Amino acid sequence: MSDSRVPNSSSGQGSGGRRRSWAELLAGRVKRQKYNPERAQKLKESAVHLLRSRQDLSALLLEVEGVQCKKLCLSNLIDCGSSEAHANHSSSFIGSALQDQASRLGVPVGILSATMVASGVGQICVAPVDPSHPVLLTVEQRKKLSSLLEIAQYLLAHNMFSRLSFCQELWKIQNSLLLEAVWHLHVQSIVSLQELLESHPDMRAVGAWLFRNLCCLCEQIEASCQHDDVARAMLSDFVQMFVLRGFQKNSDLRRTVEPEKVSQVAVDVLQRMLIFALEALAAGVQEESSTHKTLRCWFSVFSGHTLGSVISTDSQKRFFGQTLTQILTHSPVLKASDAVRMQREWSFARTHPLLTALYRRLFVMLSAEELVGHLQQVLETQEVNWQRVLSFVSALVVCVPEAQQLLKDWVAHLMAQAFESCQMDNMVTAFLVVRQAALEGPSAFQSYADWFKVHILHPPLVPSRYRSLLTDYISLAKTRLADLKVSIENMGLYEDLSSAGDIAEPHSQALQDVEKAIMVFEHTGKIPVTVMEASIFRRPYYMSHFLPALLTPRVLPKVPDSRVAFIESLKSADKIPLSLYSAYCQACTAAGAKPEDATLGVRADPSCAEEPLGQLTAALEELRASMTNPSQHDVISAQVAVISERLRDALGHSEDDISVEIAKIQLSIDAPRLEPREHTAVDLLLTSFCQNLMTASSVAPPERQGPWATLFVRTMCGRVLPAVLTRLCQLLCHQGPSLSAPHILGLGALAVHLGESRSVLPEVDVGPPAATVGLPVPELFKSLLTCRTRDSLLFCLKFCVAAISYSLCKFPSQSLGILCSCLSSGLIKKFQFLVLRLFPEARQPLSQEDTASLSWRPLYLPSADWHRAALSLWTHRTFQELLKGEDAQLTYQDWLHLELEIGPEADVLSDTERQDFQQWAIHERFLPEPSASGGCDGDLEAACTILVNTLLDFHQSSRSYGRSENSDLFFGGHRGNECIISRLQEMAADLELQQDPSASPGHSPSKGHFLYGIFHRRLQGLISGWGVAASLQRQRELLMYKRILLRLPSSVLCGSSFQAQQPITARCEQFFHLVNSEMRNICSHRGALTQDITAHFFRGLLNASLRSRDPSLMVDLMLAECQTKCPLILTSALLWWPSLEPVLLCQWRRRCQSPLPRELQRLQEGRQFASDFLSPDATPQAPNPAWLSAAALYFAIQQVGEENVRTQLKKLDCEREELLVFLFFFSLMGLLSSHLTPNSTLGPLKALEVCAAVLECLEKRKIPWLALFQLAESAKPPRAQVLTLGVSPSTANRQRCPELSEPPLVVADTRLGCLLLRVAPDQHTRLLPFAFYSLLSNFHEDAAMREEAFLCVAVDMYLKLVQLFVAGDTSTVSPPAGRSLELKGQGDPVDLITKARLFLLQLIPRCPKKNFSHVTKLLADRADCDPEVSTALRSRQQAAPDTDLCQEPRLF
After folding, report:
1. Residue 14 pLDDT more than 70?
2. How far are the Cα atoms of 729, 939, 1039 from residue 945, in angstroms, in the given order?
3. DSSP-derived secondary structure for 574-615
4. pLDDT at 1311 over 60
5. Is residue 888 a contact partner of residue 894, using CB atoms and an 8 Å limit?
6. How far is 1433 from 1400, CA to CA, in rounded Å?
7. CB–CB of 1191/1222 below 8 Å?
8. CA-CA distance, 1244 to 1386, in Å (whole number)?
9. In degrees to the nearest 10, what's the CA dihedral of 105, 111, 117, 123?
């Protein structure tokens, strides 16, 4: 073809050599060829190919249109300076022209338009550009591109533009395409950058192209180009898109673009830029070089300003986190040994400023916790570049102060892990991190040497098998500190740590320290801060080196010099032990008298050869001798200091042991034990304290005895305190009544002074029966003083009198708050309780004249009158003021707790006195007392509520901590409870009498009983679940509920009367709820409640009914309601009917001459039917309802011998179908009970035999029974499906259950399914899979193939059985080791699962495909319980229908 200069001719075929136009050629071919659709499509494809492969689109259009096509020349269209472009060629004109041309060419207009615009963009980009701006357009280029894009927008808006074709055409000119042109296409919504990237055939190539252009763009931005604003906007938009697409979940912003490829490109470009930067920094980049400018600009994008608000914080954090990971892990070429050698060069100051700037930008977005956590994660999971890791650590501790402590904690964790599991990598990491952080100076991190000292002085707790490793570590650490010229033992106070010289010897260093300290003291007149700090934090050096050097004996000058003044200042500040100071003074005096002995050191002691305990005894004797004048503070203080040192030697405690702080003291109240040496030493201390108190009290009253007792007790508050408290536990808790009066007085005073020091004493963990939290030491005495017997009551009274009297005499002018802090509130409450209990005269209100003065003197005399002393203390004005405090008030609940502890058989009070006291306390003391003072505000129900709660709390604690377990003899394990229960019975009777008198006779109150509210709240507070501990706790609680109910009137269960309109009272509803929700699971026995609670309910039922106008009707209505609301009551009555019937008959006939109500007769008939059924010749007919007759029959069968079970059950063939199904259900419950209760009357083998016999009868008569194993699903109210228990397939309604392809289970409706569930404990229902497969050998092959639902039920039971086994719930039915042979393998869960699995794997191939319709639902969330069974089910489900299954092996 020629170019566009050939004129177009309108004539036909020309003559001769005239060249014809494109249109003439095409017209000729159209005339010669007939229309063919396939050829037309092929021609169209060829035209499109020609269009796309043509480089000069203008020439092609000129060939098609002739000279007029010049009007559409692209150079004119994009020539913004041409007036012709705007005057003659509007966008609509161009669109119309393109449509015409596309029609003539036979191509879509969108493709033609896209090709034309792409060609125009290419022409603009290949125009001469500014060589300094290789990615930006010139002003002229920008104008031309703007005009072109206006046309493209019009075409796009009128569906005349193909984005895909446009993108493909653009990438053909990729090498000449400028980045700014791509950005304009993105910004003006011609095509998005995502679409452009997605359309590129080579992801890596486009990533490389973007990387090169971004590098150029960053360089141009830093060069401060003319179009800086455009360049920065471009960079921001590109980075935003990369972060958004690469680091955001669900990043599919447009449905036309798949996110995976764009995300790959985005991440690839960002990684290329970061790797380029890191490698440039590693190679060494020169300041202001082009690379330096590029990096500086690129690092600036790591900011919220550049990323903008369009990107979520999570995306930014993921981007920054990935960046940090790449920084720390790129090019991991250095080893840890290299890092140790070179890390000084990687400090913050020596790290390249660009890298530190990048770190600081990361710190802005990520928190300190995230940064340290990310560093930890990277170091644990990946190979790292140690230079970057350590430079990052330096930047972190310098720039993020919050990270310093986090870093310390992490390093400590690394060290602990290293020692616990011998992980050397963790130790290496810890050393490197600490060394690097320490390089940044003390403002950022502690010194490396200090860190070493901390780990030596406070080593981590490591397992014993790694103790040798810790010892080696400490030795190496000390060696390393020596290498660092640091010694923790011998380190002086005024050392120059910056000097590199050898460290001085300890003695010479101490002498230097003393001289420098005295010099500082001379100038300031104060003890140097360095010395004060050393006395606390450097105590070993201070005591072992500094003080001996300071206290070197000498002849003292007549005029005190600076050394003397310095020593006296330290002594006044309690920085010199009194014994050491005394020895120093004696040595100085001796030096003045005998200069030749001046060389003897302060450690010379004439008694050094004596035994340590002997030295302690001598020191204590010297203190006792000083008690003749206990107010001599200096003498007493010096002697107590000597005792402290002697005590340390006697117990073998080192100086380091003394300085160790005790966090919490562990004390065993039940079995306190001491080592012999500790026992002897502590006895010496306690005996000395008691003797000193008696001696001092003979000279002066407590308030004038000076501080000797306080100083003495402080010596017991160190390392010896646990031994002292253990010995006090032995004396007070186990030997209290045998202690003499001096001992009681002394120990009481000791308790006061321990309370005086409570703020500095650790807590004591005594374990049960006290609170689980730690106790302050003063509160410990409340636990040590018990009130259970006559002797313990009297001892407790004496101790309380001694302690309280001593505190009031010792601190007469102190405030009540200080007195309360010295005394345990428990002691004050116990004293109130004992005084009120033992002395009736104290129960009378005190008058103003009754207040007495308090004297300590009578108590320490040999003929101490404790009775008089107690009453004197009780009436003391200060004590009565003390009782007004909230913490000191004896509340009703406190009184109940103390009263419950006392055993009536060992009580100091007689039964009558105890009853009088309890009635007085309840009705006269606490019932009328305001609640703010611990009373009940006159509310009898509130008093009952507190009593019941306290009784239950006491029962839980006493049953758990060593009290009597014989609950059959004693209520709650303690006979003292019976007296309190009697008071509860009295108050409950009074409450019944307080019912509204205006109510009509027979009217029952509408509200329920307060007891059930108590039970409900307490049960909500208990831990739920199937764990052993939780179950036992719940069982104990419910047994107590039952015992309380049995001791209260039966009206608590049923109400006092019934109404025909509403036979079920509120109390009945509450009792039914308690039975259904709790007692059914805990207190039921063989499918029934215990006999006592059953008889109690029926007594209450008859009592309430007999008060109504029609007793028979009320009983019938009530028991009819029981069938649906609480069926367990009726099954319980059937079980206990032989003993229950005579009582009910007698009670009924005493008031009524009519026969028993109809519903009670049903129970008679049901029991009679069961009895007749087991008779040899009788063939009775089962009465209705069938489930009740089945329960009666089941209870009767339990009495049949195991060998006669099958013979007796042959009569079932004649019974109704419903009866058989219900009997099978009760038999299943019996089977499970026989495994759960080893001493059950129905053994496992007999229970299995009964189930097998009933199942055989069901199978023989083809009665559906499978739905019994789906009760939990079929009885749910929302389903409203019909149960078909016991209706044969020929007559049953074939409506199918939602889960199973089986005629539903039935007895009329869902209510009977709920009924059966209310009879069975939840644990039995959960263990139905165990019962199902226990009967595996009794399944009939015909039934398995006939019943469509059998497979689904079998699979469901198997999966549940596996889940129960995995959860450990089958352990409750596992046979004990001794019964395995007796049970003949029955009951072993593992064996049962194995057999069930084999059974299913054989059954699955034989079942028709229709049986697999619900397999998917069954395996929805349990497929991984048994992958092989799941695979077999799915394979069979997907297989073609079987035509012949006869060749399969038999299952049974």
Report:
1. no
2. 35, 10, 18
3. T-S-HHHHHHHHHHHHHHHH-GGGTTS-TT--TTTTS-HHHH
4. yes
5. no
6. 9
7. yes
8. 8
9. -70
Backbone angles phi, psi at 59, to 5 degrees: -65, -40
Structure tokens of 483?
């290498």
The answer to whether the CB of 787 falls within 8 A of the CB of 898 is yes
Q: Give residue for tokens 């080579």.
A: 202
Read off the amino acid at residue 340.
V
Token pair 């709650």: residue: 972
**Beta-ladder partners of 1080:** none
Pull the structure tokens for residue 166.
């446009």
Residue with tokens 């509120």: 1066
Query: Which of 155, 204, 212 is CA-nearest to residue 182?
Result: 212
Going by C-beta distance under 8 Å and a sequence separation of 6 or more, which residues neighbour residue 1021?
none
Whole-number average pLDDT of the chain = 76
Flag whether pLDDT at 66 surpasses 50. Answer: no
User: Could you please report the per-residue DSSP string of 1332-1396?
Assistant: HHHTGGG--HHHHHH-TTHHHHHHHHHHHHHHHHHTTGGGGGSPPGGGTTTTTTTT-HHHHHHHH
Question: What pLDDT band is residue 2 in, cutting at 50, 70 and 90?
Answer: very low
Q: Residues with Cβ < 8 Å from 189, sequence gap 6 or more?
A: 153
Which neighbouring-strand residues pair with 876? Answer: 852
Give dist(CA 977, CA 953) in Å, integer: 12
Neighbours of 700 (CB within 10 A): 14
Q: Which helix or strand (DSSP H or E) is residue 674 part of?
A: none
> By three-state DSSP, how is residue 95 classified?
helix
CA 923 to chain centre: 46
The end-to-end CA distance of the chain, in Å, is 90
Confidence of residue 454 (pLDDT cuts 50, 70, 90): low
Query: With 80 as the cut, is the pLDDT of residue 483 above it?
Result: no
Query: How many CB atoms neighbour CB 1373 within 10 A?
Result: 22
Are 373 and 409 in contact, with CB atoms under 8 Å apart? no
Residue 125 reports pLDDT greater than 80: yes
**What's the CA dihedral at 1066, 1072, 1073, 1077 to 10 degrees?**
170
CA atoms of 288 and 224, how far apart (whole Å): 13
pLDDT > 90? residue 942: yes
Q: Is the peptide bond before 540 cis (omega within 30 degrees of 0)?
A: no
- Dist. CA 1094–CA 61, nearest whole Å: 105
**Bridge-partner residues for 852, per DSSP?**
876
Q: How confident is the model at residue 441 (pLDDT cuts 50, 70, 90)?
A: low
Task: Note the pLDDT of residue 1006.
Answer: 54
Q: Report how far Cα 1388 is from the mean position of its chain's Cα atoms.
A: 35
Contact status, residue 1136 vs residue 1088, Cβ threshold 8 Å: yes
Q: For residue 925, give every residue at least 6 positions away whose Cβ sits within 8 Å of its Cβ, in sequence order, or none.
A: 836, 843, 895, 935
Lowest-pLDDT range, 371-375, 534-538, 1089-1093?
534-538
One-letter amino acid of 442? P
Within a 10 A sphere around the Cβ of 1440, how many other Cβ atoms?
6
Q: Which two tokens stand for residue 1274?
A: 């079929």
DSSP classification of residue 664 = E
With 0-12 / 13-18 / 19 or more C-beta atoms within 10 angstroms meaning exposed / middle / buried, residue 97 is middle
The span from the CA of 478 to the CA of 44, in Å, is 89
Give the tokens for residue 273. 């830029």
Give 1449's contacts (C-beta < 8 A, 6+ positions apart): 1402
Q: Are 953 and 1036 in contact (CB under 8 A)?
A: no
Cis omega (within 30 of 0) for bond into 463: no
Q: Closest Cα partner for 222 from 297, 292, 281?
A: 297
Q: 680 and 616 in contact (C-beta within 8 Å)? A: no
| Cα distance between residue 990 and residue 781, in whole Å | 39
